[in-house]
């Protein structure tokens, strides 16, 4: 069974505006590690929001593990950290536990702040502890998220996505505010969990994509998928409309 099956997906934000996504098709197997690339405004985040059920589907279909999205809650989502309201006076553990709400109620429910406050079960607490250990933030559990570095916050958001026990993990520019060494560490970890979790990651770092992704989906209103070996500087330049200066040495 496909992890993700998108057929003829078209989306426009207003009835009279041109489609942001047009006739998008994507079939993803469970063991894949797919990088989404494309220019700003190409529609990558919109595609994630449609998969998560945060935007209503207008035309086309999205199936997750054979079920129409968004009924399936087995998706972990790591948003861009700059969009996370880090001024909230809450601890790392509380942020990670929020992922349990998503696991139980879906992402739409999670987005309603009044749902954030509930009693967590023993199992919720145990799962949060486990993922905080795996992502190396257990020592930060009681710390306020207001006092974290960019890299620490990234790991908290990753832990929050993983505590849902996802079969599919969506990451929106997870390397945006971390250094090159931490980027590699994060992608090594993603590669490790990819044995059990299907991964879709929005990323502009061509070297990382080259080294870790199994396929590359170029999103610019339409979507074209390429095997990793087909990615060349010319293709990337064509997609972005300009050359990128961090191409892998051996992709020329
Ligand atoms: N809520 C919204 N209302 C109207 N238009 C929107 C909305 N959100 C996004 N758009 C528009 O939809 C298009 C696609 O945006 P989207 O954020 O999906 O692109 P992206 O590929 O993720 O871009 P980036 O790389 O800059 O994050 C853009 O033209 C954007 O201005």
TrEMBL record:
Keywords: ATP-binding, Nucleotide-binding, Transport
InterPro entries from the UniProt entry: AAA+_ATPase, ABC_transporter-like_ATP-bd, ABC_transporter-like_CS, Metal_Ion_Import_ABC, P-loop_NTPase
Domain ABC transporter: 4-252
GO molecular function, one term: ATP hydrolysis activity
UniProt KW Ribonucleoprotein keyword: no
Family of this protein: Belongs to the ABC transporter superfamily.
The protein's name in its UniProt record: Zinc transport system ATP-binding protein
Organism (species): Allopseudospirillum japonicum
